[in-house]
Design goal:
With about 200 residues, the chain is mainly alpha-helical. It has one domain (about 15-200). Helix content is about 75%, strand content about 0%. The chain is built from 11 helices and no strands. It has helices at about 5-15, 20-30, 35-45, 50-55, 60-65, 65-90, 105-115, 120-130, 140-170, 170-175, 180-200. The longest helix has 29 residues, at about 140-170. The protein starts with a helix and ends with a helix.
């Protein structure tokens, strides 16, 4: 069940840059290491609803219901576009700037969690990723999925925290140049718009 093959597969998935990684890096650059850790925590807890849905079979309903899938997808697209706006807006929640972080940790955590909660593909992803690593015993299938999902969540937190803290280390170097900060803000905005566009064309 929890095999080297599972660890390697999960690690590759977690390391791959996605919306959560970009958000965590943006928090590290824009607000420092504490904000990055809150972002990593939020992204991790945002996985939980998708894991529960996959373990209880609700992901299959989401996969077969075009209306429900599209509603979740549109909410996700809208939120990503909101993040893009926050990256370029003067004083926005995602903008890279020199002053210290004034956002509460829970606010950052909540925004990070929403990134994964509003991604309808995540529960379907768990439904595809976890079953090959189960023992095949129907009676324990749900418990095994929760165990594997818990390991996946732990890996997510530590990897994302690593990304965010690494970005925070570069913060002091970047803050001395307003030009670089503007470029970073526009880059983050462009990435979130691109991710929103990709999500908009996803199909159940």
């Amino acid at each position: 069940m929890i095999s080297a093959h599972f660890f390697l597969t999960a690690l590759v998935v977690v390391l791959a840059p996605g919306t959560g990684v970009i958000f965590t890096i943006a928090m590290g650059l824009g607000r420092g290491p504490k904000a990055a850790l809150w972002a990593a925590l939020g992204c991790t807890f945002g996985i939980l609803p998708a894991l529960i849905a996959a373990a209880l079979g609700l992901a299959a309903i989401l996969h077969t219901s075009a209306v429900l899938f599209n509603i979740m997808k549109l909410l996700g697209v809208a939120f990503l576009l909101y993040l893009a706006w926050q990256a370029v807006k003067e004083g926005g929640a995602l903008s890279v700037r020199a002053e210290t972080d004034r956002s509460s940790g829970w606010t950052i955590c909540r925004r990070a969690a929403l990134i994964n909660i509003l991604n309808p593909k995540l529960s379907v992803f768990f439904l595809a990723l976890l079953p090959p690593f189960l023992s095949g015993q129907t009676a324990t299938a749900s418990q095994e999925m929760f165990l594997l999902g818990g390991v996946f969540m732990a890996m997510t937190f530590f990897v994302f925290a690593g990304y965010g803290i690494f970005a925070a280390q570069a913060r002091e170097v970047l803050l001395g140049s307003e030009r670089i900060m503007r470029w970073l803000n526009r880059s983050f905005a462009a990435i979130f718009v691109a991710l929103a566009g990709r999500l908009a064309f996803e199909r159940a």
